[in-house]
């Protein structure tokens, strides 16, 4: 090791084993980059947005000023070292969309960047200031997975926003994301055995999960295959949460069940439209293991587990899909799978890079991609005084992943986005249209059911009133 390398190592800090996994997992066909977009009602003062990024992102979290330094030896871990030539403007891109500046125009702009690796000579992130979007603007972020997990980065990005247009410029604590799954601690508490029968049940479930993790296969499908370089994103319009909650109440399902069922329906319809026999398809779902009511550590980093969820996308009837989605979700909620995968991720992070890739691929190739469901702020937020109208974010895939799904609730509505491999899913708009049709059918069925259930309650009152009127007439 040279004197210069030794000096650089002395000024850096070690990258944790789990963060190192994602640092080493970049591949041309699947980069380990988390992409997020914040949609704005008007064009903000970009200098004010830049100031917010400086004071709420770069200043409080050192990793946004640091670059990765390779290890000196194969058995060492890499390090974060301060970028000696850091300048914020090197991480900001400015662009104005051409007319008509609609969703498709913004999506095409984002698509052009999804396959581009981040420069490892600099801190691993960038922000795009995009004007001309639907009379307003958007901010598109790209951040490497080695910096932090998706939930942590979402909290950081939302902490750049305020509850009112005239928000204070000082840094607020990261938003706790109310409603987001509590993750490992909650799961762990639900698995504490209280009796010999509970112990036996937990042992059986653990054996079932182990078998599933080892033997689950990703069947050939209309969305499967070897991914290539190009990726594409599409997203839906917003849906009022109240409409979807009606669907859940009438079926005994949660809002998450309804949305996951709609994704299953979209995959079913897409397979049928592609001339394929529909099959069940599996996705990976991140589970947060960090307490959401505490401030994030300055070092950020990754703290999450993964569970496999198999969409009932082979089933043809929407209500049957919803019932089966609920059943499978209920099983996962009382499964030790997240505990097991969290331990596995921690163990993988302490091995060498080649073994990390092999193990990550072994499990990743059992799924078509990653699905995230984030419960964002319940009230409207403002970025540098400008109203935020929507938020979306996709975590990267690995191995043979070709379909990523983002479900993001915000200010009383939900928006769903797909991030797909352009070679394997050539028509992502068809997949989005299938999702919107499925969700529309579920809402319509719930409305019809609600109307039908109301009739028996009204009929006795009408009959009783008619009888009273008849008696008075006599």
Short description:
This protein is an alpha+beta fold and 474 residues long. Helix content is 40%, strand content 20%. α8 crosses α9 (255-273), α9 packs across α10 and α9 (255-273) crosses α13 (428-473).
Protein architecture, described:
By secondary structure, this protein is α+β, with helices and mostly antiparallel strands. The chain folds into 2 domains: 3-158, 2-Layer Sandwich (Chloramphenicol Acetyltransferase); 184-375 and 396-453, Nonribosomal peptide synthetase, condensation domain (Chloramphenicol Acetyltransferase), CATH 3.30.559. The protein has 13 helices and 16 strands. The protein has helices at residues 3-11, 17-24, 46-58, 103-111, 150-158, 184-190, 196-215, 241-251, 255-273, 318-333, 337-348, 353-364, 428-473; strands spanning 13-14, 33-40, 66-69, 79-82, 92-96, 125-133, 136-144, 231-235, 239-240, 281-288, 304-311, 371-375, 382-383, 386-394, 403-410, 413-421. The strands form 4 sheets. The chain has a 6-stranded mixed beta sheet with strand order 5-6-7-2-14-13, sandwiched between helices. Strands 8, 9, 12, 15 and 16 form a 5-stranded mixed beta sheet that branches. Strands 1-4-3 form a 3-stranded antiparallel beta sheet, covered by helices on one side. Helix 8 (241-251) crosses helix 13, helix 9 crosses helix 10 (318-333) and helix 9 (255-273) packs across helix 13 (428-473). The longest helix is centred in the last third of the chain and has 46 residues, at 428-473. The protein is globular.
